[in-house]
Amino acid sequence: LAPINGFSHENAHDAIADVEATIFITKLIRDRQPDLYYKLLNLGEKRNVKNIIENNKVLVLVQYYNGSVVTRLVSPLATNPTNSSEVLLFDLSFEPTEYEEQSVDDITKNFKKTKRPYQRIKLNKQPFLFSLEGLPNDISLPNYDETLIKSRTQELSTPQNRTIQFS
């Protein structure tokens, strides 16, 4: 990325040269996309991520899988009782009632599937997690039915401090 954007990177993979390239790219993002830059910088603090989760029923989770960006609408489901930095989110493209009677073993099996209703994030790992209102300008939402999303979040309306056992 650095050479494509005008940075002379003759000593690629040298520690100092790679740090300089990273700084160059970071400044480029800051200058060209300040909204995105500052929102991502904000996610570097655990308390800010926790605040987003606690104050929103519908969240936008952006992840990178197999060479492509995946954007999901999710809802907070539970906090790991043994690690308060780990939060379980429910992917709102799935129907919650199909999963409400699942045992911990069933949930664990779902984590092994490519398409799964659960997403696990760590608050201290800078997840790309946004409220609908706080979504950076250049991140596109997946197509969704607002009425359906509201209905699904109501089905999931469990207390934010609900805990389940993580495996």
Compile the SSE list and pairings:
Elements: H1 15-32, H2 34-42, H3 46-54, E1 59-65, E2 68-80, E3 83-91, H4 104-111, E4 118-122, E5 128-131, H5 146-155
Antiparallel strand pairs: 1-2, 1-5, 2-3, 3-4
Helix pairs in contact: 1-2
Report on this model:
Helices cover 32% and strands 23% of the residues. With 167 residues, it is an alpha+beta fold. Strands 4-3-2-1-5 form a 5-stranded antiparallel sheet, sandwiched between helices. Helix 1 crosses helix 2. The protein is built from 5 helices and 5 strands, in the order H-H-H-E-E-E-H-E-E-H. It is elongated and about 55 Å long. A hairpin with a 2-residue loop joins strand 2 and strand 3.
Query: Over all CA atoms, what is the radius of gyration?
Result: 18 Å
Return the structural class: alpha+beta
Q: How many helices in DSSP terms?
A: 5
How would you spell out the order of helices and strands?
HHHEEEHEEH
Give a summary of the structure in a few sentences.
With 167 residues, the chain is of the alpha+beta class. The protein is built from 5 helices and 5 strands, in the order αααβββαββα. The longest helix is centred in the N-terminal third of the chain and has 18 residues, at 15-32.
